[in-house]
Structures are given as C-alpha cells and as structure tokens.
C-alpha cells in the first residue's frame, strides 16, 4: 500500500496514513532533500520516507546542522530547503537556524513532530510549544492535529516560504495525526485570503524614481540581498549599463553584481571598502534595491548619507521607512522593479545627467584606498587574508564559499571576488557561529558539480564540526578551511581596540601553546583528509592539494597569526565618516578641495597601514 500510494499523483483520493500523506505531499511540491533526525514524535513519518524514491533524506548529527544545511541548499539553488526534527529538544535545536533563515530571508520549511494532540499542553514527555517559540521568527507556522490537513498545509508552507519576501515556515504535526488514516489527493485546495504579496511595482512610483535619477548628480545603487533572492542580477546589470551609476553590494548581496566591474565599489558597512562607505556618505541619491538600512551598513543612522534622497524598493513593505524615510517608496519584486526602472530611465526624454565626474571620484577612492592588508613583520607568520585570497584565486568564481561568523567571514567577503549570485553563503543578519560547515554541506548537496569551500574559524568550527560525519557517510566532499588564530578572533579584535587588550575568555588553545583539539587528527577521526599549513610559502600547494581530493571531505588547519585585524572599520554606533583604514589611521581628504578628492598616494596609505598594524 505504501509503494502504491507513493506512485505518481493519483487521479482520485488514495487511502493512506498521515505520515504517508506527508511524504507524498513533499514529493508533490518538488522537495528533493530533507535534512533531519528521527525521534519519537516524528518517527511515523520516517517509515514511509524510507520508501520514497523522490525525496532523499540525509541524517545529520545535530538539528541545528539540519537547519543550516537546509539554508545552504536553499541559498545555493534558489529552491526551498527542508529540515525535519522531532518534538521538544529536537524542535528547539532548530530554532537558531530558523531565526537565521528569517533574518536572511531564506526559503525554508521546518517540519517537526509534536506529542499526541490529547497531550498537548500537559507538559508531556518531550513536549515544547515550538509554534509559540518560533512565532516571531517565522513567516508563518502551523500546528496540524488533523491528518486530512497535511497536503494543504505542506502546499501552503512551500508557497509562503518561497513567495514574497522568502523566509522560514514551521509545520508542527501531532504524532496521532501522522498515525491516523486519511486520504491523499493532489493538488489540495489552497486558500490564503490574507496573503497576497505585491510583486508588480506601481507605475507612478517608477516614474517618480526615474525623475529623481534624472535629477541626481551623485547617485549610488545600494544593492541588498533581496536582489539575489529575486534572481534579479541580470536586470541589475542592465540598469547599471543604462545609467552608469556606481554600485555597492551589501554583505548579503555579494555576487549580485560582478566584483570586477569598474562601477562596483565593493561592500559598504562596518568593514566595507572606503570607496563604498564614502560613496554612500557623499551621495545625493540612494537607489536602494532589496536592502534594509541595516545598522552595520548605516553606522550612526542620524549621520548616514546626510544629503541623499532615497528611493527604496523592497518586496516587504514593512522594511520601507523602518529605518530611513524613503522619498520614493516602491513595493514589489526586485526583478520587476529593476526591469521597469531601467525601461523608464531609458525611455525618458530628459537629458541624461553627466556622471563622469562622480564616477571618477568614486573610482579614485577605490584606487587610493583599496581593501588590502600589510604582511606581518614576522616573515614566517601566516596572514589569514593571504589564505583566503589564495583560496578564492585557485577555486575561482564558479565555486561556492560558505563562511562562518567573525573575522574570517569579513575577510572572505573582502578578499574573494564574487562574480555570480549564489556563490557566497553566510549568516548576515543573525551572525550565527556554526553556520559554515552545515551550510556548505547543504550547498554541495544542491550543487554537487561545484567546488564548495567552508571558510570557518576555529571557534565556529567547533560548534558544528560533527556534520563532517554526515558528509563522509553521504559522500558530500566539501572542503573546509579553518582560519585558526587560536582565538575568538573578532571578539579579540574588539578587546584589542576597546578593552585595553584585556583578552577575557577569547583564547581557544587550538594552535598557540596547545592544540585542543588537533584539527588534523579530528579530521582523520571523521574519515576526512586532514592537512595543516603554517607557512606562507606552503599556502598555494596546500590549497591545490585540497582541490585535488574529491572523494571525501578535506579539512585544512591554516595556523595564522592571531593579531591580524579586519580593516577598514567603522566602530559600532559612530558615523560612517569616522571610517578607519587601520588602527588610528583614517583616509586623508584634502579639505580645501570642494570635491573632497583625496590627494594622498597609495604609498602614503601603505605607510599608514603598516604603522597601524604595528601598533595593533
């Protein structure tokens, strides 16, 4: 009966259990992979899942890993990621990944088992109100106690997760609903009267935006992750071609516009490029596409882009005006908005503004203050930036890079060139340590023909490295670069800068003084290939060795200098005008120049950076 029920979509209702109905529903919505762990309340679903020939289940080692893997799969492919866990602690272990997906607008469906409906609210064994817990961090969530509702709920969950502003949806199913007899028919009747995302922009707002662009002399395209989620990178390229406006791409938008394009100024924000940060500050118009004026980008909000008018386009109307008032708000899908904006600008009979001077200024900032680093005074010390830069050069733009959170995340955003969407995975909004390895695993499952590097810190890696076992057993050959500075690096950097070098509880003992754990031995214990690199002259050969191994995961312990810092930097809570290129060193602007074009040379910049790094 189970195999017969799981055949192609039946023309008439077929008698099944609720658990069979769940699996058939997942097959019918096109789910390919489920990352999960069975347990008592969800166990009925695992029996028919074993017979499915359409849905692959990957048994992870921790539910948080299941959630991040579903995120990585979704981000790399653009499809809905799926994770599954049992009730109580199984479900609560998904919470971090659900919150992460919510902050970064990742389409994900999390399916959890729940105690039998009669026991709900009695503090039964392994009961947790996961629906109540996740209410603030999901687009929507469901508690299913009637088996007949399963097909409709799964169809709705996938629709809600993947449309409008993408995000996570939770489906909590009582154990007795999974065990009950019901019927399955597809497609179910779906009725969501309160859910109608606006995708088509208002023509009047497009016209008003085109007028502002025509009147602007110092515009900047401020591009956020919504452009990637909408698949609007080609439309963005056409808009830039039509207007010649400089572009900045946020941490979540890396790859939305090619890094090598001459109009790309880099990443704005706390650790953004001088050119990107300064262009936003000096702009007279921000054309904001799928970005949310995050505090890491704006710095002190009251001083952000003080002379700029704002066009704010976003599919989520709640984002518009939340942090910065928009002169022209546009609600809709980024792909449609950018296409119509390009058409309106191209069709306008108004004379095109001459942006050549503005472009020269922004490109001058980029030339004078490139994102770079100064090698350590110790010629034998391994610079983390060198490691990441070399990985990007050798693996190339077709690879996928999944970063953890901290210094290595910022260096990966800075020193790898991203030329296509879906090549950069990171936890931007939540800043979740432990994201990298399981996200890379999910990305490799979704993009098996691409090289996938997890660029992780020695702190982040120890939170979810158990998923290496999942990768070995399921033939998921990711490559892991541990940027091992024996510290919680970003916290140590802040302690260096703001707490008089009082390094309270940031020493991890992973390479300085001891190796706890020894990452090479740990990799070997999991069945991976473990490598170690401690000298600059060995970096390229080590990476090429890792690239040549494709039959199992590779873990490389890059033992790097622990005092390297991420620059540029805007300290938290201050104006972006206070950007520093190194410790106690800021860009040197010629105050007498009305255009504020800097007169300092690249040599001056290198000298300042070297002095600052010595101080650090």
UniProtKB/TrEMBL annotation:
Cellular component per GO, a single term: acetolactate synthase complex
Q: What GO MF annotations does this protein's record show? A: acetolactate synthase activity; flavin adenine dinucleotide binding; magnesium ion binding; thiamine pyrophosphate binding
Q: What is its EC number?
A: 2.2.1.6
Q: Which UniProt keywords apply?
A: Amino-acid biosynthesis, Branched-chain amino acid biosynthesis, FAD, Flavoprotein, Magnesium, Metal-binding, Thiamine pyrophosphate, Transferase
Compositional bias of kind Polar residues: 606-616
Thiamine pyrophosphate enzyme TPP-binding domain mapped to chain residues: 404-558
Reactions mediated catalytically: 2 pyruvate + H(+) = (2S)-2-acetolactate + CO2
Q: Part of which pathway?
A: Amino-acid biosynthesis; L-valine biosynthesis; L-valine from pyruvate: step 1/4; Amino-acid biosynthesis; L-isoleucine biosynthesis; L-isoleucine from 2-oxobutanoate: step 1/4
Per UniProt, the enzyme's principal EC class comes to transferase
Q: Where is the Thiamine pyrophosphate enzyme central domain?
A: 206-341
Going by the entry's taxonomy, the superkingdom of the source organism is recorded as Bacteria
Family according to the record = Belongs to the TPP enzyme family.
Could you identify this protein by its name? Acetolactate synthase
């Amino acid at each position: 009966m189970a195999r017969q029920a799981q055949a192609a979509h039946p023309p008439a209702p077929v008698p099944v259990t609720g658990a069979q109905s769940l699996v058939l529903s997942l097959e019918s919505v096109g789910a390919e992979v489920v990352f999960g762990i069975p347990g008592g309340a969800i166990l009925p679903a695992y029996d028919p899942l074993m017979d499915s020939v359409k849905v692959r289940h990957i048994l992870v080692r921790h539910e948080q890993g299941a959630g991040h893997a579903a995120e990585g799969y979704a981000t790399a492919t653009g499809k809905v990621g799926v994770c599954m866990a049992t009730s109580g602690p199984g479900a609560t272990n998904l919470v971090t990944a659900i919150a992460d997906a919510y902050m970064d607008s990742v389409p994900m469906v999390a399916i959890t088992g729940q105690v039998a409906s009669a026991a709900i609210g009695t503090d039964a064994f392994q009961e947790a109100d996961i629906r109540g817990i996740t209410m603030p961090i999901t687009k929507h969530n469901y508690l299913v106690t009637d088996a007949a509702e399963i097909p409709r709920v799964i169809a709705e969950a996938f629709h809600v997760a993947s449309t409008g502003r993408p995000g996570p949806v939770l489906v909590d199913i009582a154990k007795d609903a999974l065990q009950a007899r019901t019927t399955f028919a597809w497609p179910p009747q779906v009725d969501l009267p309160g859910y109608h995302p606006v995708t088509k922009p208002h023509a009047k707002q497009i016209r008003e935006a085109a007028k502002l662009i025509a009147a602007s002399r110092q515009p900047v395209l401020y591009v956020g992750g919504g452009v990637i989620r909408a698949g609007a990178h080609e439309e963005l390229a056409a808009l830039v071609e039509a207007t010649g406006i400089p572009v900045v791409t946020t941490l979540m938008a890396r790859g939305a516009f090619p890094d090598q394009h001459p109009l790309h100024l880099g990443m704005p924000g706390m650790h953004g490029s001088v050119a990107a940060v300064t262009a936003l500050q000096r702009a007279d118009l921000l054309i904001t596409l799928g970005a949310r004026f995050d505090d890491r980008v704006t710095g002190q909000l009251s001083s952000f882009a003080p002379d700029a008018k704002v066009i704010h386009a976003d599919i989520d109307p709640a984002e518009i005006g939340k942090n910065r008032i928009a002169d022209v708000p546009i609600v809709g899908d980024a792909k449609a908005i950018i296409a119509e904006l390009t058409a309106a600008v191209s069709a306008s009979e108004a004379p095109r503004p001459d942006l050549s001077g503005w472009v020269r200024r922004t490109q001058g900032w980029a030339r004078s203050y490139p994102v770079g680093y100064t090698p350590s005074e110790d010629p034998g010390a391994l610079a983390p930036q060198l490691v990441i830069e070399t990985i990007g050069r050798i693996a190339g733009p077709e690879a996928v890079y999944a970063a953890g959170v901290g210094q290595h995340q910022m260096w990966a955003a800075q020193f790898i060139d991203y030329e296509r969407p879906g090549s950069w995975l990171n936890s931007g909004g939540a800043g979740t340590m432990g994201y990298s390895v399981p996200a890379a695993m999910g990305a490799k499952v979704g993009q098996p023909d691409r090289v996938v590097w997890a660029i992780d810190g020695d702190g982040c890696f120890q939170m979810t490295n158990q998923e290496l076992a999942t990768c070995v057993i399921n033939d998921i050959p990711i490559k892991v670069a541990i940027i091992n500075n024996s510290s919680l690096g970003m916290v140590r950097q802040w302690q260096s800068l703001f707490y008089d070098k009082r390094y309270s509880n940031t020493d991890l003992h992973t390479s300085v003084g001891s190796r706890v754990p020894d990452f090479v031995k740990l990799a070997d214990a999991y069945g991976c290939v473990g490598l170690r690199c401690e000298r600059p002259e060995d970096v390229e050969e080590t990476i090429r060795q890792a690239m040549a191994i494709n039959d199992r995961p590779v873990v490389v312990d890059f033992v790097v200098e622990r005092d390297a810092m991420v620059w540029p930097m805007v300290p938290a809570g201050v104006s972006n005008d206070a950007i520093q290129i190194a410790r106690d060193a800021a860009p040197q602007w010629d105050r007498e120049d009305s255009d504020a074009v800097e007169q300092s040379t690249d040599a001056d910049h290198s000298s300042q950076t070297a002095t600052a790094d010595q101080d650090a």
